[in-house]
Write a structure and sequence with these properties.
By secondary structure, the first copy, chain A, is α/β, with parallel strands linked by helices. The first copy, chain A, has 20 helices and 13 strands. In chain A, helix 12 links the parallel strand 9 and strand 10. The mean pLDDT of chain A is 97. Chains A, B: Keywords: Hydrolase.
């Protein structure tokens, strides 16, 4: 049996070797104490002005150029490959690199345009990065497991190795997108940080003392560094939203069944009490709308048995815009949930929430309180569901080479436990349904006091108790995970940056419990200074169009000062 | 501990005692050998001409009269209560009788109309029967379990006893429906026949040698005897379709999440790999459309977390009608699946399928073959899923008073088995998803040879290998249960009656396996003569409007000779 460490290092080196020499950093990166922030000017120094122009254009701007052949797909692909290579060297955000294939695909797209005088599809020439759960031909899917190297999801000789593609990959290709890299995850996917025995730790590019977040951590870091204009992550407890927030990005966790998960690798695949969902991350809401709308034009419900037949609904966007335009009485109503009663978010988060409330009021909209069925009940169910198999799946995968479990995962899955039985699972599913029903009726009931006749339009709340986690200090996931049990469509709204001069420690605070104390103590204004701060905007099930439109309105009002 | 037999009999007697003396049969019913068929003229002899007129009007006709106050709700309610009382005495089809409450509700509706000059809702004054899984205030839900008598789902002192109502019950009341009885089921719900230790066996009113079917057996028998114009059953393996077919009724198993199951009693509640679904049964497709459309107008997705937000879509009906009207080239295309390769249906079923094929061709539509992914794989998964808890739930319920398990259930659940673990359940869920995906792509692929550019519009197939089961001889459920795994919207189309002079035994047939042999041997033309014969019309997920419209077209063409 080969050594897991050597296997991991060999894989890491073989991927790094795919970076063209010309794109290697000329000198080692200074430590975070010297160069905390590697975004913006720092990474720009390694790029040409033209590369900067291209990579700092958002997805909507890119396709405006690529679908009219104003920009060649090849030039765009190359610029993003270059910048992604730099990003990876700075914060370890890639698992698989396939720049050559991407550039080749881009050339084919350019030829297509030259021949037909029109783009292949609505995403013609748009580079898209993918979390390392997507299967893409030509490369592996390790999901951070050393034991998956050279296999298909841990199995050898399946005939699918480096050939099989996930449903969404096929659809993105049909739409003209260019796939060029797969991004890092914590092995098991079950962590708010990204770390594994292949590429190590994925750092937050805005503040390298902090985590990029997880589990779609590579996406967060890569897109923040503008090494990709848009990418896809997955979320079973916050794994899209956490890193969107930590990196000042927009991102959405759609309701399960809105976008196709078919044919992707996963942890505990087949656990169907809380489904992991796939969703996009980007620097603009426009980019998120663009890729969702494009994917839905592919009718994924015909190719994924779990996808609901819900095309993109422009009218749902329009309904929000009509309310906003209506003026007098035409208000949106937001429920503000500053915390879940268990932990108090750190000062920057509390300030961000205040900023959003003031923005909402300045826009003439309304805020109301939110006193839903106890979140403690919900979170208890979530933790039980995540633990249904007692860790069997992840221990099996880690056991292939005998690699050690990384710390952020070990806090939950470290000790293998007894599996739940069918009866126990059923009992949890019943409690889950009852909680969903109560929450639904609570939400319905708000129609009585919003003043609009409608129930609350969206909830605004923190999605983590901190701006970003410090390494191995992601001590509470309850603020993001309740959304997964309720399957609500939820977007992330970047709000501000930590400012040590304003966001001071609340020295007089008496923590409510040991977890609350950990969160309270882990805030260090000096260390956090400059980090991104965000909140989440929560809509009901399958309200993706509404949630994105509301988030865009708030984002526009907050201004573009963040990224 | 009281004796289960005494408890069951006491319950049975207490329910029977609610039948007004004037409605009791004057003399004992002759045995089936003398009076095989108690429908039509036989039951009519105990009714007034006016009662016959009312009860032999279909739901659409009834509401035409009740929503215009042409008929008083009270008179309609009373007529159906009377006929239901007769039906119950003939075939044992009721678990709960609440005629007094129904007549009282009807009077309130009449008062409402008198006061407001308009009906309360689209179902104003329409009597609706409910399978004994619905909770209705004032009466119990035993689901056939002696141990549930005097409890709420087996538990005492919950405060919900005789007070709590299921979500759909609330909605039906909002719509103006009159609830008057709950119908019989086999205890556990997991059988194609209806039998329990409270009311005994529910017989097929058209041929009392045969089963009414199960598990919504009481609905089948009651509606066939026109003791109810429309009722609701549930289906996790055929439990709506089986008895619709056995009783010559229209019925639909909608896709899961189309109609609200919220707040109903169930077996193995929380098992969410194959969900039981609720759907209506009636003498006409119009009645099914009426109640589904009405229920969806209540926006059940706001009150049941498992319901999809899909209002009734008139345009989906229209699409079918437009195809039919288009004439030349405007064909519907049907896939014909005569069997699943495991058992050969009995002669009447094979003839019924021929009749349907000829009807389709006469109408100018088209039939094609159907060679899907092997159904054996599907059925193996279904049986595993039904057995996830090893029988824990049903043994617990039966164990409350120590009552014996009835034979049709015992063949599957008789011996308690080991429970599946979380990992095993997940593995089955993955196989299920893969099968769904393959079946979906197979269906998509038919677009290449239908000649219409569309994939096959619907599949026509038997839903049981026999016209109706003989007692304790329901030996194969594979023809109905595969639909549940794939979650397809499926309606029952009554076709003909068994004719012993045509449907002769195929003496030369060599059975393929022991089950096939049992099915082959259990056919007795003499015994089956006169029984109803039906097939099922299978559409894709959430195609209820399309499936009902197609079934209506075929039913109209087949003629009204059946009922």
């Amino acid at each position: 049996m080969a050594n897991w460490k050597e296997l991991g290092e060999a894989k890491r080196d073989s991927v790094n070797a795919l970076i063209p020499k010309a794109w290697l950093l000329p000198t080692p990166l200074p430590p975070p104490t010297e160069q905390r922030d590697v975004t913006g000017k720092y990474i720009q120094q390694f790029l040409t002005p033209r590369e900067i122009e291209i990579t700092e254009t958002d997805a909507v701007g890119i396709i405006k150029n690529t679908t009219t052949a104003t920009w060649k797909a090849r030039e765009v692909a190359e610029a993003f490959c270059h910048r992604a290579a730099l990003a990876h060297q700075m914060v370890h955000c890639l698992h698989e690199i396939f720049f050559e294939a991407a550039i080749n695909d881009a050339e084919l797209l350019d030829e297509y345009y030259a021949q037909h005088g029109k783009p292949l599809g609505p995403l013609h020439g748009l580079p898209i990065s993918l979390k390392d759960q997507f299967h893409v031909r030509g490369v592996e899917t390790t999901m951070g497991y050393v034991g998956w190297i050279g296999t298909f999801e841990g199995k050898k000789g399946t005939g699918k190795e480096k050939v099989y593609e996930s449903e969404m990959v096929t659809e993105l290709r049909n739409l003209g997108a260019i796939l060029f890299c797969k991004t890092s995850v914590p092995h098991t996917l079950m962590a708010g940080e990204t770390i594994n025995n292949i590429i190590g730790y994925t750092w937050n590019p805005k503040n390298r003392h902090l985590a990029a977040g997880g589990s779609s951590g590579g996406e967060g870091a890569l897109i923040r560094l503008k090494g990709s204009p848009v990418g896809f992550g997955t979320d079973i407890g916050g794994s899209i939203r956490i890193l969107a927030a930590f990196n000042g990005l927009y991102g959405i966790r759609p309701s399960s069944g809105r976008l196709p998960y078919e044919g992707m690798a996963n942890s505990m695949d087949g656990q169907n009490s809380i489904l992991s969902v796939v969703g996009p991350l980007a620097n603009s809401i426009g980019a998120l709308k663009l890729v969702i709308k494009s994917l839905l034009s592919q009718q994924p419900w015909l190719h994924d048995p779990l996808v609901a037949k819900i095309p993109w609904r422009d009218e749902k966007e329009q309904e929000v815009l009509d309310i906003v335009k209506a003026g007098n009485g035409g208000q949106l109503v937001f429920a503000i949930m500053p915390d879940d009663g268990f932990v108090r978010p750190q000062p920057p988060i509390r300030r961000a929430l205040d900023v959003v409330v003031k923005t909402i009021e300045k826009l003439g909209h309304k805020v109301v309180d939110w006193n839903p069925p106890a979140h403690a009940r919900c979170n208890e169910l979530v933790f039980k569901i995540w633990g249904f198999d007692g860790g069997e799946d992840v221990h099996t995968a880690l056991g292939l080479p005998g690699e050690p479990m990384c710390a952020p995962v070990a806090s939950f899955y470290g000790i293998k436990k007894e599996q739940y039985t069918a009866s126990q699972i059923s009992a949890i599913n019943v409690l889950k349904r009852q909680y969903q029903k109560e929450y639904m009726e609570y939400w319905n009931g708000t129609a009585s006091h919003t003043g609009t006749g409608r129930p609350v339009d969206a909830i605004i709340s923190p999605l983590a108790p901190f701006a970003a986690a410090r390494p191995d200090m992601y001590d509470y996931t309850g603020l993001s995970a309740w959304v997964n049990l309720l399957d609500y469509s939820t977007a992330v709204l970047p709000v501000t940056l930590v400012d040590k001069s304003i966001d001071v420690v609340d020295v007089g605070y008496t923590p409510k419990n040991p977890t609350d104390e950990k969160i309270h103590r882990s805030y260090d204004p000096e260390l956090y200074d400059g980090a991104h701060v965000a909140v989440q905007v929560i809509g009901r099930r399958f309200q993706e169009e509404k949630v994105l439109t509301i988030t865009e309105i708030l984002g526009d009002a907050l201004g573009k000062h963040v990224v």
